[in-house]
């Protein structure tokens, strides 16, 4: 399949796919960081954060799948190796074992800010390509993170 089959220009779709793969790689690092936070959170906020981190990693996993399937819909292959994810991602892994609960939250806030910035750039690219399907999908992802960023910032008194 190629982009023409869904009424998009192949040339215009290439930067969309490139940025979707970048976003996919970053989401994999974000997902694993959330899993580490979920597994390793301790302290008085355990019950609150354990549930919140699970909610966020479940959403990230769904996002990963949607990103990969959108790339395939556009007729291209999604990244699918850890080597690709680690080599491409601007987000970096962190050691969550022994990390203070509020530092975990701050690390997730930083990730979300980076992802939102990437998504805003992607929205401009999808707009130029006339790719409303990708635009709608990415906008949904961004709105979810914007709301959760506000909640997490309120949790650590940084609102």
Automatic annotation (TrEMBL):
Family matches, as SUPFAM superfamilies: Ferritin-like (SSF47240)
A matching Pfam family: Ferritin
Naturally occurring in which organism (per UniProt): Mucilaginibacter psychrotolerans
Family the entry assigns: Belongs to the Dps family.
MF terms in GO: ferric iron binding; oxidoreductase activity, acting on metal ions
Coiled coil: none
Name the UniProt record assigns to this protein: DNA starvation/stationary phase protection protein
Ferritin/DPS domain boundaries: 18-157
Superkingdom of origin organism: Bacteria
